[in-house]
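Q: What does the predicted 3D structure of cytokinin dehydrogenase look like?
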Amino acid sequence: MATKLLLITFAICRLIVTVGLTVDPTELLRLVVDGQLSVDPSDVDTASKDFGLMTRAEPLAVLHPGSAQDVARLVRAAYSSAHGFTVSARGHGHSINGQAQTNNGVVIEMNGGGSSGRVMSRVRSGSGRVSEKGMYVDAWGGELWIDVLRSTLEYGLAPKSWTDYLYLSVGGTLSNAGISGQAFNHGPQISSVDELDVVTGRGELLTCSEEKNSELFHAVLGGLGQFGIITRARIALEPAPQRVRWIRVLYSNFSAFTKDQEFLISLHGQPSTHKFDYVEGFVIVDGGLINNWRSSFFSPSNPVKITSINSQGGVLYCLEITKNYHESIADTIDQEIEGLLKKLDFVPTSVFTTDLPYVDFLDRVHKAELKLRSKSLWDVPHPWLNLFVPKSRISDFDKGVFKGILGNKTSGPILIYPMNKDKWDQRSSVVTPDEDIFYLVALLRSALDTGDETHTLEHLTNQNRQILKFCDDAGIKVKQYLPHYTTQEEWMDHFGDKWGQFYQSKMDFDPRCILATGQRIFSPSSSVPISNHGGDKLLSIS
């Protein structure tokens, strides 16, 4: 205990010297008794980097919270301090461009072992965590989706909408949107949230929903961490299927590929027997890629012979679809799938099918992660670029990017699939193209030290810039998903008509701009609030 107090005292003294805290040190000691405020070099080092491995920050300390109140106390201390210090919440550290990092501030490690693990254990074991009657689960903001899934499956239930990778935190994906192949039907993950507990930039711990503190509720969902830190999310559930029929088919014609994708997502209002449960796709510009990473689906003993299929411009497209089912109706699933496949225009000889448990399908990318880790190919820079492209310009994007800028080599998957805009609540902070259907194009590439110049970080980041410039020059009004900009002017352009409300919400809920500064949307204020209520005004916003 004495060692812990010594460490915490050292951390607090460092904060006082560095940022000029005006609160009493003993008060700060009480703020962290549930958890731990750490300046351990290993903790600070972990918090200084992320999955992207392209930026590095210098946080002063790391808070491992023991409760939601710990989070509120730390933020309240930052809000009340004379000079202010920044606070960023970190989930699984899967950001690409330092969005969850902070310089000269404190990172809240929402996920992991130690005290964070203990608080999640208490949340998991608490009464009412999974409500079978209410069909919801209450999840800690730093909890990983894989753990949410495991908890709900004990009751035969599961969330409706997912991300492709389950080792992401609840608060992290909800601060962006959370998308995968179920989004055409259920919307993004933020569409399945009933209620949140949020610590605002004032240090207030508030419960919000459609009915209560609704402005905060809608602002936080997709709000990039700008208005508060999610400490609890109530997520809607549905009966969990037992198995998944996973199908991939190939296209050599882009128009046929997108026509079929758009047809499949138009079925979202149909009974489950008349539609697929998941619709995604990916682009194959490199003949070897289809037998790697996400494409490990294909049996090594029966590799896909890309050269045997006539493709346009050397590019193929793979439609990825699934049908969920219970073993009790297994005898009818083949007929349902056959009826849907007959309506599609893929290469007839290119149907690849597998059948697996529901959990294994949802957790498919983690298995690929383990393979990459075994080859030291996981902890490398990831210059990912995720774009929402309007349906009306997706063909132009194909010609200019897939068949143009990218060439015939890539170092990671290139996903492409459409979504229905009416499944996205426009009251959230997320921005999407102004069309009824838009596509996600996700270039999930890794910078590899292979000796191939096209796999280097410099080459890939230059290509990303070329892609964005091409879209700008061609008038393709894309919106970045998991956006990254360096100036407020760029952010204003990104948010468009939503900027006014976004800015006002920032002034309402984080007026000193201390939260999520790694997003580079607002600069922290060095001013002290001149009142203590909702009408706070600042002497200046730097």
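A (community wiki): The structure tokens above were generated from the sequence. Residues 19-30, 123-127, 291-296, 528-542 have pLDDT under 50 and may be disordered. The two ends are 41 Å apart (CA to CA).
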